[in-house]
Design goal:
Elements lengths: L12 E4 L4 H12 L4 E4 L5 H8 L4 E5 L8 H13 L4 E6 L1 H14 L3 E5 L10 E6 L2 E6 L7 E4 L9 H18 L7 H23 L4 H21 L3 H13 L3 H16 L4 H12 L15 H12 L15 H8 L13 H13 L8
The structure holds nicotinamide-adenine-dinucleotide.
Length: 368
């Protein structure tokens, strides 16, 4: 089979090591010759940030972080960065914290060293997002891509089980959606599948034992691969749906991804048999006998459902505040942003069935 494709990998340094974040951060600050650092970490992430930044030349510690990165907050944080003559940003926290650092970098051009403490993956993309008046705007700019990412699974030990599962499935969604996203290619597909394998192996371990270091390492490694694949392949149907639901109905980010994913996979699976076989094999790594799916159903969707059920994952959007009467509005908002690359034609009826099933927590079903 001959191969022909165009692939882009974003350039950033990645340093990985359990208990090594402090040391790695100091190395990166020296590399950037940073003398006045702004540390961005939410109030709830302060303890994690203080643990690893005590040796840095910190000029400013910024603790106000809010989900969806409101513009008024960004403006204050940018002004503080300027008035303190900051020359580098260090973010320590989840996707909301990384998001604020990215918004500061967007106009100031300050380099970011990101230390992620969830599996959201924003640190590996050049995508920024901000909200104003309830409307979320996103854009792509290489200024916001962190220069370096420091991964340390010791910082994820405190993630509560619910957030571990939702955030881990948010990462898995990056892998799955990359299989059919607009810029999917053999390289980002390979990265996505290895990410899925690592997440499917690591997540069940950390759900059983939150302090399992190898399991935590696998989840963080998988989350990085997931985000790298997604950054390269672009946003597929799943992310378009979740973006609309989060923005228009204020649903929580990670949980929405966790619920919607199997329904999008069930829709697309029959049209991408090879990718589905590979995904099924990757997800199967987490099961005791190495096999996936329930007897009689060898689909990737069944493998994902088996994994989700073993993790006690959330199942219904109605549990997060979506109302049944919101569904027609959601359909109308999603339809115009459905990617042309989606392997299955997305009709209003299909989309409504998919969203209704995700809303009610029904078993995901393919249509063929
Ligand atoms: P989050 O950053 O809002 O964090 C959720 C909660 O977990 C917060 O209260 C936080 O303080 C807490 N937390 C973080 N790390 C912890 C830890 N180790 N232990 C205990 N508590 C911890 O949620 P998220 O899911 O990480 O990020 C979601 C946001 O990221 C969304 O706004 C989403 O749009 C954005 N995002 C952006 C991109 C991108 O490419 N731009 C990619 C993925 C996600």
């Amino acid at each position: 089979m001959s191969l022909s494709f165009e692939h882009v990998t974003l350039g950033q340094r990645v340093l990985f090591g359990h208990g090594q974040a402090g040391e790695h951060l100091a190395e990166e600050m020296a590399r950037l010759a940073a003398g006045r650092v702004m540390v961005v970490a939410a109030e709830s992430e302060t303890e994690l940030a203080d643990r690893i930044t005590s040796g840095l030349p910190v000029a400013l510690r910024w603790r106000e972080v809010r989900q969806h990165v409101p513009v008024d907050l960004v403006e204050r944080a940018r002004a503080a960065a300027t008035s303190h003559s900051v020359d580098a940003l260090v973010s320590v926290g989840g996707g909301s914290t990384t998001g604020l650092a990215k918004a500061i970098a967007l106009t100031t051009g300050l380099p970011i060293v990101a230390v992620p403490t969830t599996y959201a993956g924003s640190e590996a993309t050049n995508v920024w997002g901000m909200t104003e008046g309830g409307v979320k705007t996103t854009g792509v700019d290489d200024n916001v891509l962190p220069a370096s990412v420091v991964y340390d699974s010791a910082l994820t030990m405190s993630l509560p089980a619910g957030l571990t599962v939702a955030s881990g499935l948010n990462a898995l969604a990056h892998c799955v959606d990359s299989l059919w996203a607009p810029r999917a290619d053999p390289i980002n597909r390979a990265i996505a599948l290895e990410g899925a394998r690592a997440l499917a192996h690591g997540l069940p371990r950390v759900v059983v034992d939150a302090g399992d270091v190898q399991g935590r390492d696998e989840c963080l490694y998988g989350a990085y691969l997931a985000a790298a694949a997604f950054a390269s392949a672009g946003s597929g149907l799943h992310h378009k749906i979740c973006h609309v639901l989060g923005g228009a109905f204020d649903l929580p980010h990670a949980e929405t991804h966790a619920v919607v994913l199997p329904h999008v996979l069930a829709l697309n699976e029959p049209a991408v048999p090879e990718a589905a076989r590979n995904l099924r094999a990757a997800l199967g790594a987490g099961t005791p006998d190495g096999a996936a799916g329930s007897p009689g159903d060898g689909s990737a969707t069944a493998s994902l459902e088996r994994l989700r059920s073993s993790l006690g994952a959330p199942t219904a959007l109605r549990d997060f505040g979506l109302q049944e009467q919101d569904l027609p509005d959601a359909v109308e908002r999603v339809l115009p942003v459905v990617p042309e690359s989606n392997p299955v034609r997305v009709t209003p009826e299909r989309l409504h069935r998919l969203l209704r099933a995700a809303w009610a927590g029904e078993t995901p079903r393919s249509e063929s």
